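ok so I'm stuck.
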Amino acid sequence: MRSLLFALPFLAIQGALSQSVKSCGGPNDHLKNVVMKVTPDPPVKGGTLTIQASGTLDEAEGAFNSNVDLNITALGIVHVGVKGGVPMTISPGAVAGPFSLTVGPFSLPSNIPGSAVVKGQVHVTNAKNEPIMCIDLDLDVPAMDDKETSVAPQIALTESVEAPALTTISSCGKATDHIPDFNVASSSGVITMTGTLDEAVTKASIDLDVSLKVLVISLPLKMTIPLTVSEGLIKKGAIKATVGPSTIAVSPDVKATIKGTVKMNDGNSEEITCLNVDTVVAADDTALTVKDDCQYYRKVQDPACGDICLPSQIGVCPRSIVVSTGGLEAGKCADKGYTVDKGEQDQEAGPCGTLKIELWAKADDIIV
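replied:
not stuck anymore, here's the structure
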């Protein structure tokens, strides 16, 4: 199915962190005889991965909606629920009949810290809200790298975290591409891609060269993902695809960015098209609520000191992340001789929320 191909680079990365991926479709699904295979299953740390899928579509489809309901734990600090849908159309659409798809083999990223747990389902429906297919995810994968990932720069008491830019996706294609007139436009949350493919494709590869930032962890991702598709899945001629508007919600919200390029090459290593991606998943600021298990931490920046009682979990962040990124030390400002109350200061801490810091000065520094 051509619509699935658009999302494959990202599904492949998710599949790279999987132990069990299977069909949860029913007898009324339009995709029949579904077979999904991950090799090896579970994946081997530091090894390669191949994902295979096949089935028979009982009618032509040109509009799809992917509805997700997932619980995700990753990178040692992310614990979220993801729910909602992403509509998509593609022309020409997927034709009735059998299809097969192989993603890989490709090398798994070795720089992803922590373990990953993804549980839930993805339901794909058509324009009539009829079921096409269902994917069941029950993944529990050990850490892929034993080394600790370095954290972001320290947060100063007077520093605020700026809101990220809006999502932008643009073409970085060339006149020599196999889609020489590729164009990307965005309006009201809908991304529209058009162009003319000058060849049919059965073998291709996705080249990712992006930087992913989630909370305070930054990860470069540079990898090549080979694709093999059945004859007639990617045809020569005019194409048009739309994606969005998305209704996916992440709870609790996290602020994540992905920036870089995604290129698609054919079986001869000739470029088909290229995308510049600068995507943001923004979170509303979350006010810090002090719980009974809070512990005091301070930061001294003469002539002032700020302290705060931090609970074990601040927004989506564990206390250790806030302490390390903020350059904090255990204890109150009073323990260092800062006893004159100078009021409160709100410190933005990205996805961790807003920290209410008590400011203090030394009595000797007060001018009467």
